[in-house]
Amino acid sequence: MQYAALGAYGLAAAIHLFACANRTQLKLRRITKCFLMPLLALCYVLLARTVSPLVVAAILSGFAGDVVLLMRPRRWAFPAGIAAFAAGHVFYIVSFLNATPRFPAWYVFALLGVVTVACAVLLIRALWKGIPKRLRPPGFAYMLIIGSMASAALIFAFAGGSRFGWLAALGGALFVASDTTLAIDAFHHPVHHRNVIVMSTYIAAQTLLVSALALV
Q1: pTM
Q2: Main-chain phi, psi angles of 91, to 5 degrees
C-alpha cells in the first residue's frame, strides 16, 4: 500500500509538471494539481513513524490553497489562497517546534527574526507598486509567516533530533523560493516558465517538509 501511494504521488507530480510545461494542457494541469496534496497526505499517514494531525492539517491547508487559487481571477481567490497557505505554515511551525529536542540560545531566535523581517521588508518594497493596496497588509503578513516557517525548519534541522533534519531546511528554502517566484510574476514582471518553476519547487518543498516530519 505504501509503495502504491508513493507511486501514485510521483506519477501525479510528473504528469502535473508535464502539463505545466505545455500551455495546451491547462485542464490536465488543473486536475492533477488537485491530486497532489491529498496523495502526499496519504503517503504521510502510511509511512510516518508517528502520525501527527498537525502535519496532516498542514498538507490539507496546502490542498485548500491549491484549489482556491485555481479559481482566480475571482477577486476573493488570491487572499483566500494566502490565508490557506498561511494556516499550513503555522501548522508546520508548530510541528517543527514540537519535534525539536532542544532549542538554541535566544539570540539565534532573535537573529532569525531579524533576517525574516528584513527579507519581508525588502520583498514587499520591491513589489510595492504592483501589489493592490488591499493585498499589501496580508501579503506582508504572509511573508513573515513563511519566513518563520523556514526558520522553524532550520532550527529543527540543526537541533540534532533527526538525521533527516536537513530535509526540513531544504524544504523551507524551496517553499520560500516558490512563493517568491510566484509573487514576482504576479506583482512585478512575468517570469519565464513560471508554472514549471513554481510548481517544481512547491512540490519538492512540501515533499521534503513532510518527509522530515515523517522520519522523526
Answers
A1: 0.96
A2: -60, -40
